[in-house]
Prior knowledge:
The protein has one helix at residues 27-34; strands at residues 46-47, 50-51. It is low in regular secondary structure.
Amino acid sequence: xxxxxxxxxxxxxxxxxxxxxxxxxxxxxxxxxxxxxxxxxxxxxxxxxxxxxxxxxxxxxxxxxxxxxxxxxx
Length: 74
């Protein structure tokens, strides 16, 4: 099963992005790959030329906020 295919993003420093799509289309999987929580099966994620494959996660410097409905209920 392919979660994301042929994805290319160029995000500028300080820029915020969001991913929109139907349930199950791979948004969370892609965000986890970008944040280096998961390793891509092919391709690479780079930040200013540095590959996520060669850095420890705590030194990657990219984070994600995943929507969870309990975050919005009080």
